[in-house]
Specification:
heterodimer; A: 112 residues; mainly beta; six-stranded mixed sheet; five-stranded antiparallel sheet; 11 strands; globular; B: 115 residues; seven-stranded mixed sheet; four-stranded antiparallel sheet
Chain lengths: 112, 115
């Protein structure tokens, strides 16, 4: 069964600190991997998208990495801000598939 | 990316009534529309997929007669929760997909509370 596992389930850090969220997947074959940010009570917003041939992708203070060999991805957030408090969801798709495979998300809380 | 709107953003209704949720694409021709449900502290769960010109395909365990989906046009899809019950209370999110791409653009979601 295709799965996407994220860790940690939740994370609390102080404002200004960096953090890294993890995503392991078993989806194969693999088309692309996305990281979404979902604020409470809102829909997911895309942060990064990477194909199997890409190793890293940045979007401002967000940097995603991908190791297609080990089927692992990470999302690194630099100099965290209070507005970064949200759930971060790793989503993987297979070639030609309409359905996306969602991770359960990491709930990130930034404290002042 | 595409701009997706949902209406209403939140709704409270009595048990037994029906509720319609609209999903609109403001700038994107959506050949495929998806409806998701999200319970507190859980990830999105796909309910159904509707392709232009065909009936929606429902995921296992989702009652098609209870959750009516109408892909009215390339810019509008509606989800009607019929005879809603408290256990239907959830966050409903639509997303749009285009022909030849697996990218999905998510709407802002609709919070449904059934009393």
């Amino acid at each position: 069964k295709n799965q996407v596992e994220q860790s940690p389930q939740s994370l609390i850090i102080l404002e200004g600190k960096n953090c890294t969220l993890q995503c392991n997947y078993t989806v194969s074959p693999f088309s692309n991997l996305r990281w979404y940010k979902q604020d409470t009570g809102r829909g997911p917003v895309s942060l990064t998208i990477m194909t199997f041939s890409e190793n890293t992708k940045s979007n401002g203070r967000y940097t995603a990495t991908l190791d297609a060999d080990t089927k692992q991805s990470s999302l690194h957030i630099t100099a965290s801000q209070l507005s970064d408090s949200a759930s971060y969801i790793c989503v993987v798709s297979a070639p030609g598939a309409q359905k996306l495979v969602f991770g359960q998300g990491t709930r990130l809380t930034i404290n002042p | 990316g595409a701009v997706v709107s949902q209406h209403p953003s939140w709704v409270i209704c009595k048990s037994g009534t029906s509720v319609k949720i609209e999903c609109r694409s403001l700038d994107f021709q959506a050949t495929t529309m998806f409806w998701y449900r999200q319970f507190p502290k859980q990830s999105l769960m796909l309910m159904a997929t509707s392709n232009e010109g065909s009936k929606a395909t429902y995921e296992q365990g989702v009652e098609k007669d209870k959750f009516l989906i109408n892909h009215a046009s390339l810019t509008l899809s509606t989800l009607t929760v019929t005879s809603a019950h408290p256990e239907d209370s959830s966050f409903y999110i639509c997303s749009l997909g285009g022909r030849g791409t697996d990218t999905q653009y998510f709407g802002p979601g609709t919070r449904l509370t059934v009393l």
